[in-house]
Design a protein that fits this description.
CATH topology of the largest domain: Fumarate Reductase Iron-sulfur Protein, Chain B, domain 2
CATH class of the largest domain: Mainly Alpha
CATH architecture of the largest domain: Orthogonal Bundle
Structural class: mainly alpha
Number of strands: 0
Largest sheet: none
CATH superfamily of the largest domain: Alpha-helical ferredoxin
Distance between the termini: 31 Å
Shape: globular
Number of domains: 2
Oligomer: single chain
Number of helices: 9
Amino acid sequence: MSAKKKQAELIEEISGVNPLKCMKCGKCSASCPSYNEMDIKPHQFVSYVINEDVESLVNSASLWKCLSCFACVERCPRDVKPGKLIDAARQMVVRQKEQTYLSPDEIPELLDPELPQQLLVSAFRRYRR
């Protein structure tokens, strides 16, 4: 089993989502408040997982631009939940870093002044453990 396939399967396992159900209607991307900020849109994110191109996802700005508001999850007619796939990819990246987490002193210098507040709250809620 290739490393790419293993990573794609890990994302599917963490998220509990079957990306093959996607019919590429684009409703998830149309409802995304961060659409203009993302280089890989939510509907494209699903395609990247299907095509096992996890490396591109991990290196994209979209992974961290997602607000985790789950508007895409609510709009999906096939229950694909792109937001959960994005969140799973984030978790995979954090898990690969093991114990090299940021210290609280490092955070202020990394913050972008245009970063949405909701993203920060969502990240703290998700990664506080």
